[in-house]
Amino acid sequence: MFVMMTVTYPPDKTVEVAKRYLKAQQENPLPAFIKTVGTFVKSSLEAGLMTIGIYELEAGKENEGLQELSRSMVPFFDIEGFRYRIETVMSVEEAIPMLGL
Fold it and tell me: Residues 24, 53, 38, CA angle at the centre, nearest 5°?
């Protein structure tokens, strides 16, 4: 299963978000059954800065993986304007068979 996590925060919170991210990576790294496919950053007129993370969860560990990803957001809860969304997504190879092709 693939998961896309979208995080948004105001530009003036960038340094604080980055510091907490680095600290969390050192103190509480994601477990081995969560593979980071890629992490991307962009600016958004509506949301400020946006980080998009794509993760692959090991088969049979989907529920635990979603819980771990949610837990990884806790250190950011008190940053004003910080928002996140976790969504499951499919690869094209997974989606095409749903069309009966």
Answer: 100
Convert the pLDDT of each residue in 60-94 to its tens digit.
999 999 999 999 999 999 999 999 999 999 888 88
Domains and CATH numbers, the chain: 2-99 (3.30.70.260)
pTM: 0.87
Based on the number of CB atoms within 10 Å of its own CB, is 44 exposed (0-12), middle (13-18) or buried (19 or more)?
Answer: exposed
Alpha-carbon distances, residue 40 vs 56, 60, 96 (angstroms): 15, 27, 25
Quickly tell me which residue has 């693939």 as its tokens: 2
